[in-house]
Design a protein that fits this description.
alpha+beta, metal-binding, hydroxyacylglutathione hydrolase, hydrolase, Hydroxyacylglutathione_Hdrlase, eight-stranded mixed beta sheet, single chain, 16 strands, globular, Metallo-beta-lactamase, Chain A, HAGH_C, 9 helices
Amino acid sequence: MMARFLRCGGSLASFIHTHSLAMDVVTIPALSDNYMYLLIDKGSKVGIKKCAAIDPVNPSSILEKVKSLGLELTMALTTHHHQDHAGGNEELARLWSATYEIPKEKFPIYGGDRRVQACNKMVTHDSTIEIGDGLLVKCLFTPCHTSGHICYHVTEIGGDARNAVFTGDTLFLGGCGRFFEGNASQMYNALVKTLGRLPPSTSVYCGHEYTLKNLQFALTIEPNNEAIRCRLEEVIKKCNKGQATVPGNLFEEMETNPFMRVDRQEVLEHCCTTDPIKAMEILREKKDRF
């Protein structure tokens, strides 16, 4: 893995590049604490490697990176309609059109909500998308933060076992998104029943750099959880060095993220309930005040 640096909780700088046999992911910071991504198919059999942009809120940065890496941008995948994720879609289509001399309407912009800016490819739960010859994207419907939120689970076609999930504002490293258009039951389904059933090795690419504060909160919920304490120490070291905290993985989340641990006795006891959905509601209320 090649890493460049950012400041946790401050402005982001440069990018992170992670790779495997058929899949590359380039993380590009945007705004104050957002992440955009380039998902690259290294398995293209002929020609230039294909890539997709995920939540490309800063289109010029996306296209600069596409050009510098010698890639062909073929689509945009949008997790949800909020301006800090979908607000660059129309401009990206316009710049893409000028670059490739193809009408901007031909640029595929995927999303699960008609409020997604410039969306022309609607997806639902279990919809699939192929990127180049080597990557298969499965759409996961995870409503709560917004009613049309989609996470994108990526696997390699006929390649190694690496897989990744792009979670937008549903799952953060160590935390989850606010329940703007949903409720605790929906977030429980999204985190535990949908994302929680992906392979534990799944790399997690979230929409914001919130990891430090999330883990500080997690430790107040489970002060005796050594995994949280160790992970927090690692994150603090990264922050002190100006390093990024993404990607994480689902195994870490299931060990340290209280919102993915609402079935665990320690979390239930802290929330004074036996109902994991009620625990989810209580945790969100506590985190909103943290």
